[in-house]
């Protein structure tokens, strides 16, 4: 079976994982201001200019930075859970990035 087929078959399971995750206390950490890992984000901010762009590949419905095929599903799940994220996930194939 081709890698894309394996990936495609796993998408419903991924959405169900996030449905559970968004309806439990797991989501609180990612929704809290300043929830980004300082060891990850501080070096980026320290070396950045006045405007930066960060791509969080594989973020799921809520990025861990605080500020894809499942983006539409994530929007539905967030709506069902009554969550309005500070930064919305956009559809993009991380595998196609160069």
Question: What share of residues are in beta strands?
Answer: under 5%
Rounded mean pLDDT score: 74
The helicity comes to 40-55%
Question: DSSP helix count?
Answer: 4
Low-confidence stretches: none
- The secondary structure category is mainly alpha
Report the order of strands and helices. Answer: HHHH
CA radius of gyration is: 15 Å
Task: Give the overall shape, derived from the CA principal axes.
Answer: globular
Number of strands: 0
Distance between the termini: 25 Å
| Largest sheet entry | none
Task: Note down, in words, how this protein is organized.
By secondary structure, the chain is mainly alpha-helical. The protein contains 4 helices and no strands. It has helices spanning 3-22, 27-31, 38-47, 71-80. α1 (3-22) runs parallel beside α4. The protein starts with a helix and ends in an 18-residue tail after the last helix. The model has no long low-confidence stretch (mean pLDDT 74).
Task: Name its key features.
mainly alpha, single chain
Briefly say what this structure is.
The chain has 98 residues and is mainly alpha-helical. It has helices spanning 3-22, 27-31, 38-47, 71-80.
């Amino acid at each position: 079976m081709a890698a894309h087929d394996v990936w495609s078959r796993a998408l419903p399971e991924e959405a169900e994982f996030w449905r559970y995750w968004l309806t439990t206390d797991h989501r609180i950490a990612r929704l809290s201001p300043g929830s980004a890992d300082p060891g990850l984000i501080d070096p980026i901010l320290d070396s950045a200019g006045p405007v930066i762009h960060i791509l969080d590949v594989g973020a799921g419905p809520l990025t861990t930075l605080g500020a894809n095929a499942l983006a539409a599903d994530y929007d539905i799940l967030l709506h069902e859970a009554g969550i309005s994220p500070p930064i919305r996930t956009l559809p993009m194939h991380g595998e196609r990035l160069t």
